[in-house]
Every structure is written in C-alpha cells, then in structure tokens.
Write a structure and sequence with these properties.
This protein is α+β, with helices and mostly antiparallel strands. 37% of the residues lie in helices and 23% in strands. Helix 1 (73-92) runs parallel beside helix 2 (120-135) and helix 5 packs antiparallel against helix 6 (246-266). The termini are far apart. The structure holds adenosine-5'-diphosphate (ADP), ligand DP6 and cobalt (II) ion. Cobalt (II) ion is lined by residues 119, 121-122, 153, 155, 208. Keywords: ATP-binding, Lipid biosynthesis, Lipid metabolism, Lyase, Nucleotide-binding, Steroid biosynthesis, Steroid metabolism, Sterol biosynthesis, Sterol metabolism. This is Diphosphomevalonate decarboxylase.
Length: 351
C-alpha cells in the first residue's frame, strides 16, 4: 500500500482578551476580536499525524486512542478547504500525486486534559490543519492557513503563531479577513511567564461552542461587551504588549476574564465555568497584589475552572510563596494537593 505521511505538534493558546460569540456559526466568524498568548512548553501540546493514499477507503480521526466521528461539519469544512488548495496545486503541476482525491487518516493525541477549558480545541484543530497543510505541501502563509483552522475551532487560528497573537474579527461576510496575526513574538517579552493551576481535568458540562451561542442569544450584558468593552480593550492590550506595560496588560487580562465569566452568568440559563476553587484563586491573586502593593500576578480563566496565571520572572518567588502556602504544596513541579477540591498540580510554562 502506498501511503504519504506528515506530523506536527501545535501548542495551546490562552486568551487574554476572550473570544466568546459567533456572528456566523458555519464560518466560525466571531463577534469580537481577541488576543492570546501561546504557551510554548511541551506540557500542553497536541501531536497529530496524518496520512493519505489511493487505497484508503474513508476519512478517519483517532483522538486520544479512540475513533471519533469525522462527520462534524467543522472538521469536514477544514478538510474541504485543504483539499481545494491542494487541488489548485495539482492543477498547476500534473506530476503531483492526487492527494486531493484520496481519503485521510488522522491520529491525534493531546498530552493534557481534553475539553476541560485548557484550549484543547485550539491546539487540536491547529495541529490537524497544519499537519494536512504540510502533507499537501501548501504554499499559503500561516495567516491564510489560520482561516481554515478557525473553521475547526475559532481559538485554533491563534495557535498557528507563537508569542502574542491577535485574531482580527474582520468585516467580510465570507470570512476572508477573519484571521490570526502576530502582535509580538515570544522573544519580545522574555520575562513573561505563565503557570497553569489545574483545578479539574474533567470534561466541562457546556462545550464552548454551545455555551457561546446561548450567551449571544440571551445575554444583555454580552451586547455591551461586544459593542464597547472589547473593541477598546483590543487596542489597549496590543499597545500594552508592544510597550511591555505589565501593570496594564495584567489589569486588562484580569478584567476581561471577569467580564467574559460575567456574560456567562448573565446567560439564561446561566453557565458556570468557574468553581469555588477558581474563585479562591482570584481572591488570592488580588491579595498577593495588595500585599506587595504592586502587580505580581494576573489570572485568566477560559471556559472551565482551571486558572492560568501570568507573571514576570523576577516575581516568581513572591507569587509561589503564597500559592504553595495556600494550596499546601507537597513536592516538585507536579504537585499533589490535599483535597480534591484544590488544584491537582501546578506547572510552570515559559510563554
Ligand atoms: P477546550 O476548552 O478544551 O477547547 P472545547 O469545548 O472548546 O474545549 O472543545 C473540545 C473539543 O475539541 C473536543 O470534544 C474535540 O471535539 C475537539 N478536539 C480536542 N482536541 C482535539 C484534537 N487533538 N484533534 C481534533 N479535535 C480535537
Ligand atoms: C473561552 O474556540 O473553543 O477559550 O470556536 O466554538 O470551537 P469554538 O470555540 P472555542 O472557544 C474558546 C473560548 C475561550 C476564549 C478564547 O479562547 O478566546
Ligand atoms: Co475550545
């Protein structure tokens, strides 16, 4: 059997200005622009391998060792776009094998909890699309390919870039200008670090896709967020990154996390992504900043209870002195806590 292979890994990205709301569900066009930091460490990644060949009979996706349905429209949309771009290449060079006509087998592993609010859909669809683009030897830019990843999962478009990334919502109805762009590379702000506090690795009750659709439909607060709050913050946050203005970046990050979770609470029926431990972490972060009378730490929570903390390297000891005392550290980076209710482990990530 003749088979052609490609593999790639993709990192997660954690939004500091949240995407929450679609203006077009099929094309995955957002109601607002967003910003994220890509976490470059090996601890939170998707590894995806793809293969194609004339003898394969079906498209197949194996996720974390289990065959998943490939019927989902969003995955099909990604495959359709990728095949179309490959077809254009084949049309321009008759010697190329006809990958665009063959089925694909996709095997993917996340080395962190799936669907727990740690951006598995971001790393997952970024890896899927980039692996196939690599297999197909597509010449398009990362921003162009990000539009295809966006159709898989909105947040995935940002995982194609390292460092600080913006997803520009765009104005067009066909999505041709809704893409990810780099705000600054990782090396721009080498002192920035992130730590993840895994409060729960369980699958969330409300997936991001359905959660945000209910918010758009039912929340009045959401309208204000999209009309006024986020557009203002989008410009301020990009500026804070370019100027390495840590106190401003930190404040905007915390406020935007709170604003996003407030719209979840304003959704009807309400959606609760944060739990009591999450709230304890928020309180602790504000206590730490008040204690030192400076911004030591910024928190953000995606659609799940797990915390991502941003801080500057020089303040690491100040932050973890409090974290370890509060959460009763036992040993090492992989730290077990005494109660199920508390974070299961802390890991450090260079951003
Ligand atoms: P999360 O907060 O982890 O991003 P979502 O609700 O947004 O959670 O998305 C979870 C879904 O993303 C999974 O149920 C699965 O369909 C998809 N997904 C996660 N990882 C991958 C992967 N590696 N490859 C393809 N799809 C993935
Ligand atoms: C809270 O990108 O997972 O993490 O586009 O429906 O797949 P779909 O949603 P998804 O939503 C992410 C929501 C968020 C904020 C963010 O990443 O910007
Ligand atoms: Co997601």
């Amino acid at each position: 059997m003749t088979l052609y292979f490609a593999s790639t890994t993709a990192p997660v990205n954690i939004a500091t200005l949240k995407y929450w709301g679609k203006r077009d569900k099929d094309l995955n066009l957002p109601t607002n622009s967003s910003i994220s930091v890509t976490l470059a460490q090996d601890d939170l990644r998707t590894l995806t391998s793809v293969c194609t060949g004339p003898e394969l009979t079906d498209d197949k996706l194996v996720l974390n060792g289990k065959e998943e349905s490939l019927a989902s429209e969003r995955t099909q949309n990604c495959l359709k776009d990728l095949r179309q771009l490959r077809k254009e290449l084949e049309n321009s060079d008759a010697k190329l094998p006809k990958f665009s006509e063959w089925k694909l087998t996709i095997v993917s592993e996340n080395n962190f909890p799936t669907a727990a609010g740690l951006a598995s859909s971001a790393a997952g669809f970024a890896a899927l699309v980039v692996a196939i683009a690599k297999l197909y030897q597509l010449p398009q830019s990362l921003s162009e390919i990000s539009k295809i990843a966006r159709k898989g999962s909105g947040s995935a478009c940002r995982s194609l870039f390292g460092g600080y990334v913006a997803w520009e919502m765009g104005n067009e109805t066909d999505g041709s200008d809704s893409k990810a762009v780099e705000v600054a590379p990782m090396a721009h702000w080498p002192d920035m670090k992130a730590a993840i506090l895994v409060v729960s690795a369980s699958k969330k009750d409300t997936p991001s896709t359905s959660g945000m659709q209910l918010t758009v439909k039912t929340s009045d607060l959401f309208k204000e967020r999209v009309r006024d709050v986020v557009p203002r913050r989008f410009e301020e946050m990009k500026k804070s990154i370019r100027e390495k203005n840590w106190p401003l970046f930190a404040e905007l990050t915390m406020k935007d996390s709170n604003s996003f979770h407030a719209t979840c609470l304003d959704t009807f029926p309400p959606i609760f992504y944060m739990n009591d431990t999450s709230k304890k972490i928020i309180k602790l972060c504000h206590q730490i900043n008040a204690f030192y009378n400076e911004t030591v730490v910024a928190y953000t929570f995606d659609a799940g209870p797990n915390a991502v903390l941003y801080y500057l390297k020089e303040n690491e000891h100040k932050l973890f002195a409090f974290i370890y005392r509060t959460f009763n550290k036992v040993s090492g980076w992989e730290t077990k806590f005494s109660s199920d209710e508390l974070a299961q482990f802390i890991k450090h990530f260079d951003t």
